[in-house]
Design a protein that fits this description.
2 domains, about 375 residues, Aminopeptidase, 13-stranded mixed beta sheet, alpha+beta
Length: about 375
């Protein structure tokens, strides 16, 4: 008989079985989830839901329990934006909450065996959702599903039927790599904007003439503290929140995924002026974290060189098919050939009395995001 098991650590789940379900999404992989457990802020508690039959995992989901006093991107900063400080002072929050998704992932909320028929997938998702909602109710927690992509049709249908409120999330940004050389990439940009193509050439030349070199890190141990500081400073500058990981994050990640972790560093005047974290998974790479020392870089365009031109050139040479970037800033990415995909945020409050307020706020939030964010499109 099928059964659902709740587990508190990815260490207790067979790596091979799990990665079969994770398929092509790095943030659903065993190595990433283990790194999150080992280096994430201690207040964030993971919980895994497994749908099993004859000891075989046919479906699974990852959730995190987020207490009210923990400063996280989801959901308060996403839903309140700059007004979050005011709402926080008033004691208004969407937390505590159970957030259902693998940390940093887009569009991977339920992991299903590829051999399952469509009706079986729908039934397993329903059973897993029942178990998740029951656990949240037992703990008096609201439920959130961030970064839901349009192709997750079964999930969206189920959440709407269950009365979840829906708004827009930050879109996913990616780039398809199909050129045979970096010159081919520049020609592609030129067809869309001659000015942007000239800007790319100027930014590469200015960076080189400023004495900046960009290399892959070979010895992480001697540089981890400096690299982490750049990542943390970047997070504080742009999201107003520190990195959600401890200082050992990069070394833990290296231990768990090996050569699939690639770190670029920019060096200027003998000092590290920039860092980019690349996560490789098959013929796809993810670039979720970067940091620039702007006091050292000044106007030498290190950001564009380390986050775009060098990884794009390497991706072409190494037969990478797709690059996924982190959320925002969107327009510089669109100008350099990225595409964006709409994403949704679903939420179900714990207490029925708050439903009307949540419904009203989600309507306002969706209107705000439709005005604020670029719409899904191929490129500009």
């Amino acid at each position: 008989m099928p059964s659902i098991t709740i587990i508190d650590s990815i260490r207790k789940i067979h790596k091979g079985q799990w990665n079969e379900l994770a398929e092509d999404n790095f943030f659903a992989s065993h190595g990433w989830l283990l790194t999150v457990e080992e280096s994430i802020l201690k207040e964030l508690i993971p919980i895994y839901f497994l749908y099993q039959k004859d000891l075989r995992i046919l479906g699974a989901a990852v959730c995190y329990l987020i207490p009210k006093n923990l400063k996280m991107v989801f959901p308060d900063d996403l839903l309140f934006g700059r007004a979050n400080k005011i709402f926080s002072l008033l004691g208004i929050s969407f937390m505590p909450v159970m957030v259902c998704y693998p940390f940093y992932a887009y569009g991977k909320h339920f992991f299903l065996n590829t051999d399952l028929a469509p009706l079986q997938k729908e039934r397993i998702i329903k059973n897993l959702l029942d178990a998740i909602e029951q656990e949240a109710k037992k703990k008096n927690l609201s439920l959130s599903f961030p970064r839901v992509l349009p192709q997750e049709k079964i999930l969206i249908k189920q959440l709407c039927q269950r009365g979840y409120f829906q708004t827009l999330d930050l879109p996913q940004t990616y780039m398809d790599i199909y050129w045979d050389s970096f010159d081919g990439y520049k020609k592609h940009i030129r067809k869309r904007s001659l000015k942007m193509k000239k800007n790319i050439v100027q930014e590469i030349n200015k960076n080189r003439k400023s004495g900046v070199t960009i290399d892959r890190v070979k010895n992480l141990n001697s540089q981890e503290r400096r690299l982490y500081k750049l990542l943390n400073d970047n997070s504080l500058k742009y999201s107003k929140l520190p990195m959600p990981f401890q200082e050992n994050f990069l070394s833990r990640l290296k231990k768990n995924i090996g050569d699939d972790l690639i770190i670029y560093q920019a060096t200027k005047k003998g000092r590290i002026s920039g860092v980019l974290v690349m996560l490789k998974y098959g013929d796809t790479v993810y670039l979720p974290f970067s940091g620039i020392d702007h006091s050292l870089a000044l106007n030498d365009f290190t950001y564009f060189n380390i986050c775009f031109y060098r990884p794009i050139a390497d991706a072409i040479n190494e037969n990478i098919k797709k690059i996924y970037y982190g959320a925002g800033p969107y327009y510089p990415k669109l100008q350099r050939g990225c595409k964006i995909q709409k994403a949704y945020f679903f939420h179900k409050p714990c207490y029925p009395a708050s439903k009307m307020a949540v419904k009203l706020w989600f309507c306002l939030h969706q209107y705000w995001y439709q005005k604020k964010l670029p719409q899904s499109q191929d490129s500009v």
